[in-house]
Give the backbone structure.
Amino acid sequence: MGRQYSLGVGPQALPAVKSYPWWLRYLPGRIQFLDDFEGVLKWELVAGVVTKYSGIEVFEGTNALSLVTGAVAGNVAQAQVYLGYFPKCRAAFQMRWHALNAADTTMRKMQVRLEFRDGVNNNQVYIQYLKNLTTPQNKWQLQNPAGTWDDIPGAAQNIDTTKSIHHFLRLVADLTVSPPLLLSFESDNLLIENLAIALRSVAAPGVPYINMALETETDVALASTAYFDALCLSDREP
């Protein structure tokens, strides 16, 4: 299917749908961006090796996004895409992802960066899974208003980065306030709701747009590989 923009799909549209594609389970918000990485790869290379992968690591359809770092500790692989800005609201981001490495000590982190540039401020929703930092960490973190990383309370989680386990990640953020607030966080069986964690907002006058980036980093002198699939960004979340 590839990505689609401003579909305006809501629960009221369900009876009219003849076949139910994977993205219908991401309702009830209005879908602004979808990518199952079918068709031409739309993501830009920032660092590392970024490819459209086709094989057993795919979650939906026949393709996924693959990021591979270099074999130097601290080396990153990153891809990004740009979108038109939508009205300030509660927005949700969700995807499937997994890392596949020879050892559970290889990957340092997997990071998602969402920048909602409204023409005045760059409202940043940055989250990362910190797997290793010389020693095992196994926890989720958010970038705070000062630009440093804080642990999400109650979000310690040991994710196996040596097996093809397609993990689910979902965030809901309130963009109607500045700085934005993280309202809920979900990773597989870990669900934390009723949050109001302040994120970062910095002055950035200019044309409004959204920037989305996916990144992985290695912690050792070995390449680290991560796969991403079934990605969705929606607005007007309840």
User: Anything to note?
Assistant: Confidence is low (pLDDT under 50) at residues 1-20. The domain at 11-235 is CATH 2.60.120.200 (Jelly Rolls).
